[in-house]
UniProtKB/TrEMBL annotation, chain A:
It comes from Streptomyces glycanivorans. Residues 2-122 form the Response regulatory domain. This is Response regulator transcription factor. SUPFAM superfamilies: C-terminal effector domain of the bipartite response regulators, CheY-like. The keyword Electron transport does not apply.
TrEMBL record, chain B:
CDD domains: HATPase_UhpB-NarQ-NarX-like. Its EC number is 2.7.13.3. Residues 25-202 form the Putative sensor domain. The chain crosses the membrane at residues 25-50, 115-136, 156-185. Residues 230-297 form the Signal transduction histidine kinase subgroup 3 dimerisation and phosphoacceptor domain. This is histidine kinase. InterPro entries: HATPase_C_sf (IPR036890), HATPase_dom (IPR003594), Put_sensor_dom (IPR025828), Sensor_HK_TwoCompSys (IPR050482), Sig_transdc_His_kin_sub3_dim/P (IPR011712).
Length: 215, 421
């Protein structure tokens, strides 16, 4: 799987390259600025891009803007955005097109190699990987709203993991319940959120989107 | 000869200008003065709310024209002291009330009114003198030339000369020449005097300037104090937080180094602790950064930073932003933290379930209003934290206004003069 990596701090870039290579990713390019990233995304057409929000030359949200532009040109281009902080505002912008293949994680998550690589793979496969911090912000904010109040504590827990982009298998493992129990919870959640039940993979993205849109 | 000619021309020009201006002074100022008084009186009836802003605008235009002429004709500069006047406060009734209040609060409004009164009296008299001294001598000359015959039976008083014969007619002519010479000599200074008189009323008083200096001194002290205590807080947070955790991490790593072969299980546990420590240090640093200069503010500017702020609130909110650029970083930062504090206050005290934030910039003024549908009753200076916001904005010459009748709704308005780039 070919990766384009954009990160301006040498140490972190180097570390990410090593880590990704150790997990059998092919680094198509490791760049350190916005213009380089834009060029790499357009020319190399990677399977997934791992992008820092803040990049030179402007050191503002150059990376994020690059990712959004690239996704307009190539809808569904998987992008995993890394940031020193996570903001709902940015999460909403990333998810806005509803195409999936989006990740938005705190840089700290890189510490846990397995989780991080899992997130990259999920995003590359068209899923989502939202940082637990974004999700908990969303859930705490919605706690006073309908229909969040209608969810049981257990369902909220499932919702939280699902919104992060975990599969039912992963959720079942983490919560130490059977997969069938998780499936029951998720269908309850979809019902309470008024999301049409279908076999569409993006239903989980829709669940997160439904929250973001309500904000 | 040449100088006499140019002198006469200057005098004539001044006289002509004074002639035109005297009508403006009498008619314009008198009408505006009466209408303004009427309009202020009618505020109680509500009608004044509609007329006052329009009328004030006319008065200011009138005064501005005089300022322009003063600079052009007599090289007298009269400063324009009006507070920035919002043209697009809001539509409808509340906008009118707000505008009228702003006008009534501006000392320049009252100064203008005093000036109108002075302009239609003393100012007018000066102008009349200015041109009459040039026109009146003509009558003396005409009398001497033969018009005196009309008054042979009944003396005609030309100034203090009773004209009824050629001799007295010549005397009148002589007086006329003297007056003319006086007029030629005096018309320019008289016109100048008129503008000096206008300046004495229209320009901000020394007292006001002194007040402003006092206020600047005060806000500077506050700014220095705030900056110093902020630095102390950051130092303390770093010292007690991230720094301590990193030290602990280093110690853990040292122990791990020693343990790794002897007791791998224990070493593993300590590694996990070290990792947790590093994560906590990061979280603390992140919070600290957010407190100094919020990331979204740095990356996107005030508009999106306020939007991001509103997203984190437990209350449904609507944010509208109209900014054509970014303000300077210190202004942005002050505005952001002020909004942040107002929002925190609202969530804590207002008991509102909806709030609206409006951020826009027009005519060199950044305006932010936060409105909620809560219970109201908020006031500046009751230990409500609003005083702190006021001080924070004061450093940038900004102002805070709170309208919060009991029962709500509360509207907090902040204004900071600044340019966007």
């Amino acid at each position: 799987m070919r990766v384009v990596l954009a990160e301006d701090l040498f140490l972190l870039r180097d570390g990410l390259v090593r880590m990704l290579e150790a997990y059998d990713f092919e680094i198509a390019a490791a760049v350190e600025s916005g213009p380089e990233l834009a060029k790499a995304l357009a020319e190399l057409r990677p399977d997934v891009a791992v992008v820092d929000v803040r990049l030179p030359p402007s050191h503002t949200d150059e990376g994020l803007q690059c990712a959004l532009t690239a996704r307009r040109d190539r809808p569904g281009l998987p992008v995993l955005v890394l940031s020193q902080h996570v903001e709902q505002l940015y999460a909403r912008e990333l998810l806005a097109d509803g195409n999936g293949g989006i990740g938005y994680l705190l840089k700290d998550r890189v510490f846990d190699a397995d989780q991080f690589i899992d997130a990259v793979r999920r995003v590359a496969a068209g899923g989502t990987a939202m940082d637990p911090q974004v999700i908990s912000q969303l859930l705490s904010r919605r706690s006073v709203d309908e229909p969040m109040g209608a969810l049981t504590p257990r369902e909220r827990e499932v919702m939280e993991l699902m919104a992060q982009g975990r599969s039912n298998v992963a959720i079942a493992a983490q919560m130490v319940v059977t997969e069938r129990a998780v499936a029951k919870h998720t269908s309850n959640i979809f019902g309470k959120l008024g999301l049409p039940v279908s076999d569409d993979d993006n239903r989980r993205v829709l669940a997160v989107l439904a929250y973001l849109d309500r904000g | 000869m040449r100088s006499a000619k140019s002198r006469a021309r200057t005098a004539l020009r001044s006289g002509g200008r004074a002639f035109v201006l005297s009508f403006e002074a009498l008619a314009g100022s008198a009408v505006l003065f009466v209408l303004s008084l009427l309009s202020f009186t009618l505020i109680m009836l509500g009608l004044g709310l509609v007329t006052t802003p329009k009328l004030t605008e006319a008065v200011r235009k009138h005064a501005d024209r005089r300022r322009l002429l003063a600079a052009k004709w007599s090289d007298i500069r009269i400063p324009t002291p009006y507070r920035p006047f919002p043209k697009d406060v809001r539509d409808g009734f509340t906008g009118q009330v707000e505008r009228t209040t702003l006008i009534l609060k501006d000392p320049a409004t009252w100064r203008d009114l005093r000036w109108l009164l002075l302009d239609m009296t003393a100012g007018f008299v000066l102008l009349v003198f200015c041109w009459a001294l040039l026109v009146y001598p003509v009558e003396g000359l005409v009398l001497a030339a033969g018009l005196w015959r009309v008054f042979e039976d009944d003396a005609y008083w030309y100034a203090f000369v009773p004209v009824d014969s050629q001799a007295t007619g010549l005397a009148a002519a002589a007086l006329g020449v003297v007056l003319l010479l006086g007029g030629v000599w005096a018309s320019k200074p008289l016109l100048r005097l008129h503008f000096v008189l206008a300046r004495s009323v229209l320009a901000p008083t020394q007292e006001e300037l002194a007040q402003r200096i006092d206020r600047l001194t005060e806000t500077r002290h506050e700014a220095v104090d705030t900056a110093a205590s902020e630095l102390r807080r950051i130092e303390r947070d770093l010292h007690d937080g991230a720094q301590a955790r990193l030290v602990a991490m280093g110690m853990n790593l040292g122990t791990i180094e020693a343990l790794v072969e002897k007791d791998p299980a224990q070493a593993k546990r300590m590694l996990a602790m070290a990792r947790a420590s590093s994560a906590e240090a990061l979280t603390e640093l992140r919070d600290l950064v957010r407190g100094i200069h919020p990331p979204v503010l740095a990356e996107r500017g005030l508009g999106d930073a306020v939007k991001a702020l509103a997203l984190r609130l437990p209350v449904a909110s609507e944010v509208t932003v109209e900014l054509s650029g970014r303000a300077e970083a210190p202004v942005e930062s002050a505005a952001y933290f002020a909004v942040s504090e107002v929002l925190t206050n609202t969530v804590k005290h207002a008991g509102a379930d909806r709030l609206w934030v409006d951020v826009h910039h027009s005519e060199g003024m950044l305006r932010i209003s936060v409105t909620d549908n809560g219970r109201g009753g908020a006031a500046i200076g009751t230990g409500s934290g609003l005083g702190g916001i006021e001080r924070r904005l004061g450093t940038f010459d900004g102002v805070l206004a709170v309208s919060s009748p009991a029962g709500g709704p509360t509207m907090v308005t902040m204004e900071i003069p600044c340019a966007l780039s």
